[in-house]
Design brief:
- The chain has 233 residues and is of the alpha+beta class.
- It has 3 domains: 53 residues, Roll (Structural Genomics Hypothetical 15.5 Kd Protein In mrcA-pckA Intergenic Region, Chain A), CATH 3.10.290.10; 81 residues, Pseudouridine synthase I, catalytic domain, N-terminal subdomain (Alpha-Beta Plaits); 79 residues, Alpha-Beta Plaits, CATH 3.30.70.
- Helices cover 20% and strands 29% of the residues.
- The chain contains 6 helices and 15 strands.
- Strands 5, 6, 7, 8, 11, 12, 13, 14 and 15 form a 9-stranded mixed beta sheet that branches. It has a 4-stranded antiparallel beta sheet with strand order 2-1-3-4, with no helix packed on it.
- The chain is elongated.
- 27% of the residues are buried.
């Protein structure tokens, strides 16, 4: 197995970041610092070290989807002492990490796994995995506003990526719409709407690629199906 793939699968970082760790001399194989990005290892025999710790691959991989509620941080530990999504995971015997993030006040679909290579395939921009959000804003949105979002709203002089935007309903007070993005910049959806003077009342992610939130209860997890896992290959 290529060393960078081993590191990514072990959950250290993305493959690109793992390559930087190798080039910076931060990885040892069998006690020796390795700088060659083309290095291959026998994951069953070779001893790989990072920051003084020995890395191993999980004996089995776990893939979960969670309906993240508002009021939980998408991290294993929060510097502000807030509740995290891992407080909601019932089985804490396996170390999992979240695939991407959702803002503290955003709810909906988030994936959890112990497979770093899988996580990289989901979040890396080059794979252009769609993320769909249901957005609720106050008032009736105009077609001109939809056009700006679709083209890419300008934030601080920089044009944001294009988005697929489709109105769902207007009940006389709130507009509900679907927003689909692929890049997933920090706070991207909220920043898009702030750029057109709209404040989001509710933001919920309902789909990542072909994986849908469905009727999963808030705070609950569910294993991904084999078909859902393979959809990211």
């Amino acid at each position: 197995m290529r060393l960078n793939k081993f590191l990514a699968t072990a959950g250290i970082a993305s493959r690109r970041k793992c390559e930087e760790l190798i080039k910076n001399g931060e990885i040892k194989v069998n006690g020796q610092v390795v700088l060659n990005l083309a290095t291959t290892i026998d994951e069953k025999k070779d001893k790989v070290e990072y920051k003084g710790g020995v890395l191993t691959l999980p004996s089995s991989f776990i893939y979960l989807k969670m309906n993240k509620p508002k009021g939980y941080a998408s991290t294993s530990s929060d510097e502000k002492g807030r509740k995290t999504i891992f407080d909601l995971v019932e089985d804490k015997s396996v170390r999992l990490f979240n695939v991407g993030r959702l803002d503290y006040d955003t709810e909906g679909l988030i994936l959890l796994t112990n497979d770093g290579d899988f996580a990289n395939r989901v979040i890396h921009p080059k794979f252009e995995i769609e993320k769909e959000y249901m957005v609720t804003v106050e008032g009736k949105m105009q077609e001109s506003e939809f056009a700006v979002l679709r083209k890419g709203a300008v934030v601080n002089g920089e044009r944001m990526p294009e988005a697929k935007v489709k109105p769902i309903s207007f009940d006389g007070k709130f507009t509900k719409l679907s927003v689909v993005i692929t890049e997933g910049q920090n706070h991207q959806v909220r920043r898009m709407f702030e750029a057109i003077g709209r404040s989001i009342r509710l933001l919920k992610r309902v789909r990542i690629g072909q994986v849908r939130l469905g009727n999963l209860y808030r705070g609950k997890t569910k294993p991904l199906t084999e078909e859902e896992i393979k959809s990211f290959e």
